Amino acid sequence: MEDTLCYKYPSIMNPIENDKKDTIHNLRVPFEHGWTRELVYSSNNMKNAEVYYVCPAGNRMRTKREVFQNLGNLNIWNFSFAKRPLGCNGEIIRTASARGCRDLETAFKMQKASVDVGNSSAQQSICSLITEATDNSMNIRSPGEKWWRFMFVLYVSNCFHDLRINEEIDFLCCFFCKECLYSSENYTHMDEDQLRQEIAKKDDLIKNLRICLLRNESEMKALQTQIKTKPNLSHEETLKTIELLFPMLSKNQINIMTNQKKRVNWTCEEISTGFALSFFSRRGYCYLIHKLHYPLPSIRTLQLWSQKMTIGPGIIEDSFVVMAAMRSSLTEGESQVILAFDEMKCKERYEVNKTLDCVMGPHSQMQVAMVRGLFYKFKQPIFVDFDMKMSVELLNSLIKRLYAIKFNVVGIVNDNGGGNVGLWTKCNVNYERPYISHPITKDKIFMFSDAPHLLKLLRNWFIDGGLLLSDGTELNQYRIRQLLESNTEISPLYKLSLHHLEVKGAERQCVRLASELFSHTVAESVRRNFPKDAVAHKLADFIELVNNWFDIMNSYTPNGIAYKAPYGKDLEEQNRVLDEMYWTIKTMKCFNKKGELQESLQISQKGILMSITSIKGLRKEMEEKFKFRFILTHRTNQDFEENFFSQIRGRNGPIDHPSPVECLYTIKAIILGKNPGIGRHLHSNTIEQDPEEYVSATFMRHLSRDENIDGICERNGDQHEIGNIELLENDSDDDIREKIANDMTEDFLADYTNDIKVLPNDSNGLETCIRLEIEIIDEAQTEFLDDLDPEMAIDETAARKARSTEDGLEYLAGWIAWKFKKKHPEFSKTRRETLSSHITDHTYAKRIGIESSSWIDRVSYGGLTKPSNEVMQWVRRMENVFIEIHGDEFNNRMNIRKLLISELEAECKEVPSLVINLYARSRIYMRCKFLNKQREEKALLLRVLKRPRDSLSDISRAKIKKMQKIVT
C-alpha cells in the first residue's frame, strides 16, 4: 500500500454556554516540511466532539473542478480552496511523495455553520456531506486535467453519534482505507447541570482569588506609606552598616558598589593595593575589574598615578617625600633606622628610558641603598645607581638627607665584598672600633656585617680546608661524612646530605644549606655517634656554638625560646655565647683549599668579630637613649635587601639579570605595591620571615601614639609569628607543643615530595664512593686511620646505623603522637623541663655524654613530643612489615598505599587504623625521598670524580684498604 498523508492534532473545542455568542477559534494544522493548514470554525452549541482526519490514498485523486463542484453544493458546509497542482499535464501522481507534500497547500474556511443539536435535518446534512464526498471521489480524471490531492477534516458532535453516522464513518473508512482515518480523544460528555456546577466552583475560586488580591494590594499600600513616612538612613549610617558587614572594603569601594558615586578619588592606600595586585598579575587584576566587577582603580589610573613618581639613577627624591610624611606619625624611638647597601648583577645592554628620555647602559652592576626601621616595621629604597661603588661621601650624604627628615641612622649593614671592605678601611672601621661618627650629631653609627653571609663564609672555610682551634684541634668535614655514611633511611638527620658538603658555584649562596650544616641537630648527632672521640666532641661544641651565635644574631620574635629570643631578653647568657664565639673566632685559624694554614684573620672572621661588638654597643646605646630592653637582631641583617633583589629578578620571569631600565620599572612597581613580599622569587637566596611594607605604600596611614614602646615595638611585630609565641605562657602543654617549632611537622612531609629525577646509572657506585672518600681525605685523616682497628671501625659503623635508625623511628613515632595529641593524648608524653625563661636551664647541656638518653631528650627544647612505649612498639612492628613487603625499593607501584594499609592491618591488628593510615602515607613519602637522595648523591659523586685526582698520589695502598673496609 502506498503512503498516506494522515495528520492528527488535539481538539480545542471546549464546552461553551448556549447563551454565549459565537466564538471564532483559529487553529493551524501542522504538515510535514513546514506547510500549515488553517481552519476557522464556529463552536456555538458544540459541547463535545470527535475530530476525524481523512486523506485520500493511492490513486484516488481529485480534480479542482470536481472538488469545487461536489463540495460547493452542500447546503450546510461551504468550503473554499486555494490549491496547487501536484503534477503536469499527462502525469498521474500515485504516491504521497516528499515533493507532493511540499506542493500541497490547502486552506479550508468554513464560512457558515448552523447546527441544531438533535435536528434530523442536521444529521441528514452531515451524512450527505460524507456520502457525496465519498461518491464523488470515485470519479476518474479526464485526459489533460491536473490531479489534486486533498484531505477532509470532519467534526462530528457526540449528539450525532447514532447508528447511521457510525455506518457512514465505517463506510468512509472502508473507502479511504482504515489507515487514513484517525480520531482525536473523546471528550467526556457533560450534561448542563454538571457544567454549571463546575462553572460555579470556578466562580467561587475567582472570588476568593480576588479577595486575596485586594488584601495583598492593601498591605502593599500600607508598606509603601510606611516607607514614605519613615526617614531615610543617612549616607554615613549606610556606610557604617556596610563597613561592619564588609570590613575589607574601603569607603570609595562602598560608594561605588552602592551607586552613591560614579567617580571617586582613590586614596593612596587603595592605589597601593591596586599596585600590589597588578604587580602579581596584571591579567588577574583586569579579570577582577571587568569580569568580577570588583571596585578597584583602573589600569589607566595606576599608570597616571605612577607617572608622578620618578625613579632614576641617583637619590630617589620621592622616597624622602613619603618618608617625611610618615615621620609625623612616629615617635623618636621609632625613627631609628638601619642603612643597608648592596649590588646586583644587571644585563649589559643599551636601552631607552621613556620616562627619563635618555639612553641607559651598558651597566653590569646596580647599587641599591635601603633603610629599615630598627624598632618599627618599614623599609624603603632611597638610592639606585649603576656601576657605582659606595663611597664615604655618598654614605655621608645619605645619612644627612635622612637626618633632614628626622630619621636617625644608628647602624650600617653590608656584606664582605671587596668594595665594602675598602669602605671599612677608609672609614677607619675594624672589629675593635666598629663604628663611625654621625656627620651631624657625631653619635656612633655601628657597622654590621651580614650574619647570613658570614655563616656561608664560615661554612666554606670549614668544608674546603678546615679550621684550627687555639688548642691545636683540627676541625673538618671528615666526621660529618662518617655520619652520612651511617645515615639510614629512617634517620633524625633526614635534612643532611652529601650535597651540604659538596656545594659549588652559585649553590654556595644558599643560606639554608649552611644553617642546616651548623645546626643543633647535627651537633647532637656527632656527640651521640662518637661518644669517646674527643675531636668529635670539640667539633660538636663548635657547631653548637656557631648555631647559637647565628640564632642570637638572627632573632625574629620577641618571645623566642632558647637563643632565638631577642638580644637583651636573657642578656647574661647571650653575652656568654657571644663572648665565647668572639674568643673562638679570634683565636681560630683557617686552612685554604690546598691545606695551607692562614696565619692572619680572614675577612669572615673580622666580620663576625665586628658584628658581635656592634650589637653589644648598639643595644647599650638604645637602652640609654630610648629605654629599649632588647633588639630583634634580624633587622641588623641584609636579608630585606636580598629579598628586594629576589623580587626584581622574579618580576622578570626566567631572566635572573634584568637590564637597567627593567630594574627601574620593577623597583617602581614594587615600592608602590602594598607588601609584595609574598611574590618572592622561587629561587630566592633568603626568605624574609618578617616582611615590612614599603613606606611609599603606607605613608598615609596614621598610627596611634598612645601605646608605649617597651623593648622592640611588640605591637608592630608580625602577627603570625608573635601570636604563636605569646600564647606559650598561658596555654596548655598540648597547645604549646603545637605552637613551638616542631621540625617534623611540615618540613617532615614536605621534604619527601621531590620528583624522582633520571640520573645516569653507575654499576660501580660503591667503588665510586670509596674512591671519592679516599680522594677528599687529607694526611691528618689518614693518620687517624692508622690508629683504628678495621674491624672495630666496621662494628662502630654498624652500631651508628642501628642507633640512627632507632633515633629516626623515635622521631617518626613522636610526630605520629603529636598529630593525634588531641584525640589520643595517651600516645605521647611531653617534656617541658626545658621551657624556661632562662636559657641556662636548658637540660640538653646537662645530658651531654649520656648514651642512654633518647634522641628527643637530647635535642628537644621542650616542644618535641616524646612517644609512649606503646606507640614505639607499633612503629617498630609497622616498619618491619614495610621492609618485608618492599625491601630496599618498592615491590609494587599501583595501589601502593591501599595494599600497604591492608597488610599492616592484617599483621598489626592492635594498632589503630588512623595510626596505620598516617604511617603508610608518611612512610611511602619517606622512601621516595630517600631514593631521590641516593640518586642525587650518586650523580654528585660522579661529578666529583671528574675533578683532578692529584691527592690520590699521596695516599698509600694500605690506607686505601682501611678506608674501603670502613666504607663497606
TrEMBL record:
<dbReference type="InterPro" id="IPR001739">
    <property type="entry name" value="Methyl_CpG_DNA-bd"/>
</dbReference>
<feature type="domain" description="MBD">
    <location>
        <begin position="21"/>
        <end position="86"/>
    </location>
</feature>
<dbReference type="GO" id="GO:0003677">
    <property type="term" value="F:DNA binding"/>
</dbReference>
<dbReference type="InterPro" id="IPR048365">
    <property type="entry name" value="TNP-like_RNaseH_N"/>
</dbReference>
<protein>
    <submittedName>
        <fullName>Transposable element P transposase</fullName>
    </submittedName>
</protein>
<dbReference type="Pfam" id="PF12596">
    <property type="entry name" value="Tnp_P_element_C"/>
</dbReference>
<dbReference type="InterPro" id="IPR022242">
    <property type="entry name" value="TNP-like_C"/>
</dbReference>
<dbReference type="Pfam" id="PF21788">
    <property type="entry name" value="TNP-like_GBD"/>
</dbReference>
<dbReference type="Pfam" id="PF01429">
    <property type="entry name" value="MBD"/>
</dbReference>
<dbReference type="Pfam" id="PF21787">
    <property type="entry name" value="TNP-like_RNaseH_N"/>
</dbReference>
<dbReference type="InterPro" id="IPR048366">
    <property type="entry name" value="TNP-like_GBD"/>
</dbReference>
<dbReference type="InterPro" id="IPR016177">
    <property type="entry name" value="DNA-bd_dom_sf"/>
</dbReference>
